[in-house]
Amino acid sequence: MDLYFFDFDKTLYAYDSRKRLPALSIASGLSQYHLAKTWWEGGFEIRAESGEWPTAAEYLAEYGRVTGAVITLEQWQQARALASTRIPGSIDALRHAASIGTVCLLSNNPSVFAESLPVLAPDVVAIVGENRLVSCELGVRKPDPQAFELALGRFDARPEDTFFIDDSAANVAGAASVGIHTHHLVYRDRVPQLDGLHEAIERFAARKK
Question: Rounded to whole angstroms, how far apart are CA atoms 72 and 23?
Answer without folding.
Answer: 13
